[in-house]
Amino acid sequence: MAPPRSSRPITADEPDSGPRTLPWLHGGEVLVADDDPSIRKVLARAFERFGMTVTSCEDGDDALAQVVHDPARWHLVALDLTMPRMGGDDALARMRSVRADLPALILSGFLEADMQDRVAGLGRVAVLQKPFTLRALADALWEVLGPED
Known about the structure:
- The chain is an alpha/beta fold.
- It has a single domain (29-145), classed as Response regulator (Rossmann fold, 3-Layer(aba) Sandwich), CATH 3.40.50.2300.
- It has helices at residues 37-49, 60-69, 88-98, 112-119, 134-145; strands spanning 29-33, 53-57, 76-80, 104-108, 125-129.
- Helix 1 links the parallel strand 1 (29-33) and strand 2.
- Helix 2 (60-69) packs parallel to helix 3.
């Protein structure tokens, strides 16, 4: 687990539903892997709203292949914890052998404590429990991508 960061700056005009942009986030490409097409769509819209470019795939095997093909391309990977063929935690562990510093967001419907146990030791990773709000997503992005203290 990444060390905790200071509180994410929130602008005065940030609505309760979440920000339209994250001023500290300077775009980049995100790889989203989730077996649920509706979750992929929601995540893609949210990341695009934050100014990022999104590529989506259905499982950890496909995500791993994308990272192996072009490791430097990705600013972040967002992986569902439980997917067919290969789950997000296994995919991330294998991705880290290709690119050790790859920032990651792990999403799951499991209880957060269970998720923390499964991703312990995976390095720079934030955990986000489903369902989530845009603000919770922004906070998770700050945790994994925000400036160091």
